[in-house]
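Field reference: sequence -> structure
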Amino acid sequence: MSMGNKETGSHDIVRCPWVNLKNEVYVAYHDHEWGRSVHADERHFEMLTLEGAQAGLSWEIILKKRAHYRKVFNNFDSGAVACYTAGQVEALMRDPGIVRNRLKIESTVTNAQAFLRVQKEFGSFDRYIWNFVGHKPIMNVLRKAGDYPVRTKISDAISGDLRRRGFRFVGSTIMYAYMQATGMTNDHVVSCAFRE
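Structure field:
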């Protein structure tokens, strides 16, 4: 039974089993971002947006479009995105560099508005979101692909609270992927060289 995904060649680097070793962008994302604690609000808004955009698609597709997302969504400045007009939404609907789904694009704008309300209430989105895990990462002990959960009681709680606050595309499965991406949970398999 494979415990990880081993890179072939001169370096026998073991990575998580989900990593597509043929995609350099995907490998770099795993090695340098996934599972590392995020505390900058702009980065939280970026990951909320990208995880929501992924719904029904592969993460590889989103990573390919990520640079363009940063460009058209003002480097994920929630204050700027919250003020997007209907005309800007229509322009985004014609932009092949992003996922052209009206509900996902519109939700990015309304999520930015909700994001600002959370920042105002808690001082930062980071303080709000990390409270769900007691302000420290959950260290899971995973050994193979089948060990990964798709949702947890905590992701259920985050999803429910975000929805009550007006966020969209924040279902429990999406929020668990968000927790993994932002390091709220460390889901690198125990054999992965990048587990901290």
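Note: The chain has a mean pLDDT of 93.
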